[in-house]
Amino acid sequence: MGALPYTVYAILLVVSESVQASSVVLEAENAVHFEGKQVVSRLNASGQATLKMYKGQTVSFEFCLTTDTKLEVQNLWYSNDGKSDLITVTVDDTKLGEVLTQMQFKSGEAWNIFKPSGPLGSSVYLSEGKHKLKLRVKKGDKYGVEIDKIELFLQNGQLKNSSECMLLCFDDISYNYSIADTGVGRNISRGRLVQKSRPTLCAEEDNVNIPIFYDSARKFIISANHPQYMAVANNRMPDWENCKMAQSLWSLQDIDLSQAQRVTLTSGVDTISVTPLDTDMQSNLTSYELIIEFSLDGPSLGMMDSETGSIIKVSFGGIIHPVDVSMQYFGRWSQWSESTSKTIYSNKTWDTWKVPDFTWREGQGNSIRLIITALKIERIEIEEIVMNKRGLAMDQSMMVYDDGMTIIEVVHMDLWWRINETMTLKTLNDDRVFQRVDYFRIYRKIPWSENNFCQVFVMYQDGNVRLLPITPHGLDWIPFGSSILIGHSDPMAVRPAAPLRHAEIDPKELTIKLTYLDGSFLFLKLNVTLNETMVILSDVVYARSLASYPFLTFRSMWVANGNTDVDHVSVDGLETHPILSGWSTLRGTAFAFFRKCISKHNTLSPDIRVNIID
Ligand SMILES: *[C@@H]1O[C@H](CO)[C@@H](O)[C@H](O)[C@H]1NC(C)=O
Ligand SMILES: *[C@@H]1O[C@H](CO)[C@@H](O)[C@H](O)[C@H]1NC(C)=O
Ligand SMILES: *[C@@H]1O[C@H](CO)[C@@H](O)[C@H](O)[C@H]1NC(C)=O
Ligand SMILES: *[C@@H]1O[C@H](CO)[C@@H](O)[C@H](O)[C@H]1NC(C)=O
Ligand SMILES: *[C@@H]1O[C@H](CO)[C@@H](O)[C@H](O)[C@H]1NC(C)=O
Ligand SMILES: *[C@@H]1O[C@H](CO)[C@@H](O)[C@H](O)[C@H]1NC(C)=O
Ligand SMILES: *[C@@H]1O[C@H](CO)[C@@H](O)[C@H](O)[C@H]1NC(C)=O
Ligand SMILES: *[C@@H]1O[C@H](CO)[C@@H](O)[C@H](O)[C@H]1NC(C)=O
Ligand SMILES: *[C@@H]1O[C@H](CO)[C@@H](O)[C@H](O)[C@H]1NC(C)=O
After folding, report:
1. Which residue's alpha carbon is at the smallest distance from atom 1 of ligand 1?
2. Ligand 7 centroid vs 299 CA: distance in angstroms?
3. Which UniProt keywords apply (predicted)?
4. How many Å lie between the centroid of ligand 5 and the Cα of residue 283?
5. Residue 104's CATH number
């Protein structure tokens, strides 16, 4: 948690109020406690106190950044009486510069005269979270030097209370890149990442969307490694906080049927109208017509709401005598369904109607109609009406290969989102062909386990691939996080896809030949070592233009540092950028999508690298 018993937190004074940049002050006397720490009272010092330092001493200050930023030291304020001293300033082990104090001999009076060092010249890029600034007196006389305060300039954001800084980020995490990784003596042009991500508050949404373009893409490698940060937590459950509720499509409360009305709404439901129909003079029964018109998201947004069957639940109030209710729906077939009736006997009980799959249409133009027949004098109201998606069945998997080292399964899903699409899979060892495959997955034996296997590779019919390194020793399983779409996809699509037609797998060699619906081909080799799962792609034939269609698309999730499946991307082992901000296009041949900050979401899901070879 970072709160060491002796830690004294720096007091922060925000000098500049500008939206982005800010100047902040670390009072030297608030340095993290160290043996022999000596605070001196000085009337002219900021906070009326200084920190006394002698040759060889090192002192550190912890601070916490609200966002990724460039940091500079504007001034180190000191006083000195005696010979010059040399102080080095580092932030997280990056040296920012040195301060040479002015020589002054005033028989001790100079200790109350404070001088600024001026800007140190270098700057450092830091990620959100906790960092350490260190001062070391490299040279000095026996009287030492007194430090008053350190003024920092932050290009973005501010400091926050270090004790509230739970985020742990490591700026020394990087992915080194050497020419040997990607073949020797190449002279290839560079690939291009394009930023298509959008912010989200929901950790279960793939908001990170980065198509990768390259003008030949004949050979490339994708690898999955364990995150480089040290973490033993293995958080892996979904977090639906701030996510649009998956099951309920819309709900309405308290509809008074005695009043004719037409209400237009903004979200989910478009309009509600209530119309009293004629009263039968013989029976004194009167009918009310309730029509609810609504919109649903569908496949063009990568959603299944308009395709999935639904369950409509209604609860009534004011029931004295039994009430007849009939329901009809109107959707993609542009005609009202036959009506189904129920008799309602009591208040506040749920009566349900089922609507089959593929009834609704995407977008507007869906309606349900209820005809409610009751005695005229009785005041019936709808307490609540809800439309939910039907529950989905479990995925059905079938083992198609098992040699004790490798297991391969094909899986069929209830309502795969590429509605009309399905792939076939052929196992080359026995020439069997499996139909209606929505995805297939490969398990490898865990070397340090008697008979446990772990998933290392999953490929969906939409081209999406998820990779995992072998489960580390001591754990049962680790989660998938980021994924990568292999094959041409529409870079403008909300949910991009590179739909597959057929996969031919050689289980012994772990090679797969992929045939896409658009006519592209790709040859894939899986290489699973103890700490890395790698796919090598080659022998490609692209059906569409590589200039307009990406050959890969990186997909992941970022809500805020510490709640991510990825937080940074680096290019050719050099530049590192926050995954969601500060760039629109990056060029290079080796890209690493990784985390610097320990994430509470899928803590041990892998970092992903893409190396273009040819
Ligand atoms: C404090 O600083 C002022 C100038 O800012 C200086 O005139 C004064 O002498 C200093 N006080 C002492 C005690 O040195
Ligand atoms: C920082 O947090 C600690 C503990 O919550 C609190 O005692 C202290 O006053 C805070 N400091 C500032 C500057 O907010
Ligand atoms: C990258 O690797 C080279 C050689 O292996 C090494 O000299 C260099 O320090 C490494 N750089 C980083 C940032 O790890
Ligand atoms: C690499 O390609 C560029 C442009 O095509 C060319 O100018 C350069 O000489 C090439 N370098 C090598 C080492 O082949
Ligand atoms: C209908 O209502 C009228 C007056 O409200 C009443 O006289 C008559 O008996 C009612 N008929 C039936 C069938 O309940
Ligand atoms: C339903 O609620 C109404 C009041 O809202 C009450 O008069 C009526 O008796 C209740 N019906 C039943 C069947 O309990
Ligand atoms: C499925 O196929 C039908 C026609 O065969 C087409 O109208 C519809 O758009 C397709 N749906 C999807 C999601 O591709
Ligand atoms: C698999 O990876 C290991 C380690 O990187 C390498 O030594 C080996 O040659 C690779 N195997 C294949 C078939 O590429
Ligand atoms: C995998 O582990 C080996 C041995 O510990 C190490 O040399 C190698 O760098 C690791 N590879 C990666 C990609 O971490």
Report:
1. 44
2. 10
3. Signal
4. 7
5. 2.60.120.260
Ligand 2: centre distance to CA 44 (Å): 25
- Are the CB atoms for 424 and 516 separated by under 8 Å? no
Pocket test for ligand 5, best of 284, 286, 376 (most atoms within 8 A of CB): 284
Same domain, 474 and 604: yes
- Using an 8 Å Cβ cutoff, are 357 and 309 in contact? yes
Judge if 520 and 384 occupy the same domain: no
Judge whether 604 lies within some domain. yes
Angle in degrees, CA 205, 206, 212, rounded to 5: 170
How confident is the model over 181-223, as pLDDT tens digits? Answer: 554 445 566 889 999 999 888 888 899 999 999 988 899 999 9
Q: What is the pLDDT of residue 480?
A: 96
Give the torsion through C-alpha atoms of 201, 202, 208, 209, to 10 deg.
-120
Residue 361 lies in a domain: yes
**Cβ contacts of 365 within 8 Å, gap of 6 or more:** 293, 295, 330, 331, 334
Q: Does 448 share its domain with 497?
A: yes
Residue 529 CB less than 6 A away from ligand 8: yes
Is residue 172, in this structure, part of any structural domain at all?
no
Residue 229 alpha carbon to ligand 1 centre in Å:
49
Task: Examine the fold and report which residue of 106, 137, 166 is the final residue of a domain before the chain moves on.
Answer: 166
Give the CATH number, domain containing residue 316: 2.60.120
- Give the total number of structural domains in the chain: 3
Q: Which ligand is nearest to the CA of 298?
A: 7
d(CA 540, CA 528): 22
Q: Are residues 427 and 545 in the same domain?
A: yes
Q: Whose CA is nearest to atom 14 of ligand 2?
A: 161
Residue-wise pLDDT for 555-588, tens only, equals 999 998 889 999 999 998 888 899 998 899 999 8
- Structural domain boundaries, residue 562: 179-240+393-612
What is d(CA 324, CA 84) in angstroms, rounded to the nearest whole number?
A: 96
Same domain, 588 and 454: yes
Whether 478 and 516 share a structural domain? yes
Ligand 5 atom with minimal separation from the 283 CA: 13
- Rounded distance from Cα 16 to ligand 8 centre (Å): 54
68's torsion region: left (phi>0), alpha (psi -120 to 50) or beta?
Answer: beta
Residue nearest to ligand 9 atom 2, measured at CA: 531
pLDDT per residue over 228-248, tens digit each?
Answer: 998 888 999 888 777 775 678
Helices (H), 57-128: none
* Ligand 7: residue whose CA is nearest its atom 10: 420
**Which domain-ending residue is among 144, 166, 188?**
166
Q: Is residue 417 assigned to a domain?
A: yes
CA-proximal residue: ligand 7, atom 5 (nearest): 420
- Residues 467 and 326 both lie in one domain: no
| Residue 176 alpha carbon to ligand 3 centre in Å | 6
Give the residue whose CA is nearest to atom 2 of ligand 7: 420
Determine the residue of 93, 94, 176 to mutate for testing ligand 3's pocket, defined as the one with the most ligand atoms within 8 A of the Cβ atom. 176
* Together in a domain, 351 and 443: no
* Alpha helices (H) in 201-291, listed in sequence order: none
Whole-structure pTM value: 0.74
* pLDDT digits 0-9 by tens, 476-512: 999 999 999 999 999 988 899 999 999 999 999 999 9
Give me 334's structure tokens: 């542009």
